[in-house]
């Protein structure tokens, strides 16, 4: 379908749902309602938002960004390239599988990557990161 609509390249993903698509608009609206009861504070560390491909600007609203993220395309490559431009050279993928690590390696093979899936891999990653310091 995507190629028929003019996409140059497609990559099927094994996911459990239609994440980051308009099919999740109702979930996005429900999240927006929940956020009305949440107080958001200025971030203490930089956060790169995948619907922006960068950090947010001062005038951008965190709840709006997060609700958009549920049902909008993400800019994963832009996020990685932005972080690289900010001096990030090490990434830790948390969760089962290595899908995101594979994407990162396609962007820049020199990036250090760690995958954390269980307690053993948490400890191994912490140990490896300590050695790098």
Automatic annotation (TrEMBL):
Its EC number is 2.3.1.39. GO terms for cellular component: cytosol. The lineage of its organism: Bacteria, Bacillati, Bacillota, Clostridia, Eubacteriales. This is [acyl-carrier-protein] S-malonyltransferase. It catalyses: holo-[ACP] + malonyl-CoA = malonyl-[ACP] + CoA. InterPro entries: Ac_transferase_dom_sf (IPR001227), Acyl_Trfase/lysoPLipase (IPR016035), Mal-CoA-ACP_Trans/PKS_FabD (IPR050858). It comes from Candidatus Fimiplasma intestinipullorum. GO terms for molecular function: [acyl-carrier-protein] S-malonyltransferase activity. It is an enzyme of class 2 (transferase). Keywords: Acyltransferase, Transferase. GO terms for biological process: fatty acid biosynthetic process. It comes from the Bacteria.
């Amino acid at each position: 379908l995507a190629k028929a609509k003019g996409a140059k390249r497609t990559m099927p993903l094994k996911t459990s749902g239609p994440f980051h698509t308009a099919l999740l608009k109702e979930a996005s609206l429900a999240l927006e309602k929940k956020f009305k009861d949440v107080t958001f504070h200025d971030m203490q560390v930089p956060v790169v938002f995948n619907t922006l491909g960068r950090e947010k600007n001062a005038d951008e609203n965190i709840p709006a960004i997060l609700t958009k993220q549920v049902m909008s395309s993400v800019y994963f490559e832009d996020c990685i390239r932005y972080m690289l431009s900010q001096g990030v050279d090490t990434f830790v993928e948390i969760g089962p599988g290595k899908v995101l690590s594979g994407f990162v390696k396609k962007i820049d093979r020199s990036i250090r990557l760690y995958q954390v899936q269980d307690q053993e891999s948490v400890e191994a990653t912490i140990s490896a990161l300590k050695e790098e310091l």
